[in-house]
Amino acid sequence: MSTLLAKIQIVSGKEAVFEEVMSSMYRQTHDREEGVLRYEYWRGSKPGFYYCLLSFDSSVAFWRHQASDHHEGEMRRFQECIAELDLEVIDPVSQASPLPVTRSTPCPESEPEAVREQAELFPIVLANWWRALRLQ
Q1: Coil, strand or helix: which one is 89?
Q2: What is the pLDDT of residues 57-110, one digit of tens each?
């Protein structure tokens, strides 16, 4: 399982376009993809600031999402809206989230090249300090 939190600052004046693109991405992700546990967007308290929680049942499902036709098809419009993007791998706290722990798995060679490229661009790296807390 892989969970990520995207912190997104939008170019001033592009908020409505961003929300239109993300509404389309949300629908297509939930309608077309397998392995999606959470994929949702929120507005932050600062103007033009958004969050996205992405959770997939495997790292491969996340990389497939990144390589999907609908994700790649919206990329140009998405990039026009983004001033800053921070994509952070996160780990649910046991008994404080319904999501399973984040795991890092290699991308199988049998995956298409586009998926393997996403695995290189967006590796799922676990923070060492999580391990001790997972044992409690």
Answers
A1: strand
A2: 999 999 999 999 887 777 778 889 999 999 999 999 988 999 989 998 999 999
Cα–Cα distance between 122 and 135 in angstroms, integer? 26
Alpha-carbon distance of 4 to 56, in angstroms, equals 9
pTM attached to this predicted model: 0.90
What are the DSSP calls for 101-116, one per residue? PP---PPPTTS-HHHH
39 vs 109: CA distance, rounded Å: 26
CATH number at residue 97: 3.30.70.100
Q: Is 62 exposed, middle or buried (0-12, 13-18, 19+ CB in 10 A)?
A: buried
Give how many domains the chain has, as a whole number: 1
CA quadruple 104, 113, 37, 88: dihedral, nearest 10? 50
Please state at what angle helix 59-67 crosses helix 69-81, rounded to 10 degrees: 70
